[in-house]
């Protein structure tokens, strides 16, 4: 077996809040979205810089409170972009870790966390 890509599924409760957080603030783009019918839960794929996530309003797909660990590059610049957007509900720090990296951790409105990490050079 060869793994080609891993895509975490994160539980969301409100499409508009998810768009405000993931698209407007973090800078992801919506790749596709699906609803079985109007007024049904949404399931969508979003992506940014090689990271793909699935967001689901379906109660059986995932549990709130998940954490995704991401290795990335140019984290300090990304952190500065996030701070400049002045998102009302999240003001992440840029911190050094015990494992030799910088980390920016964000928490979405549904209590899921994304830990963006960059190795110190």
UniProtKB/TrEMBL annotation:
Q: Name one GO biological process term.
A: response to antibiotic
Which branch of life, at top level?
A: Bacteria
Q: Sorted alphabetically, which Pfam families does this protein's record hold?
A: Glyoxalase_7
Q: Does the keyword Thylakoid apply?
A: no
**Record-annotated membrane-spanning stretches:** none
Q: Where is the VOC domain?
A: 2-119
**Which UniProt keywords are given for this protein, alphabetically ordered?**
Antibiotic resistance
UniProt key word Membrane: no
Indicate the family of this protein: Belongs to the bleomycin resistance protein family.
Annotated protein name in UniProt = Bleomycin resistance protein
Q: Which organism is it from?
A: Segetibacter aerophilus
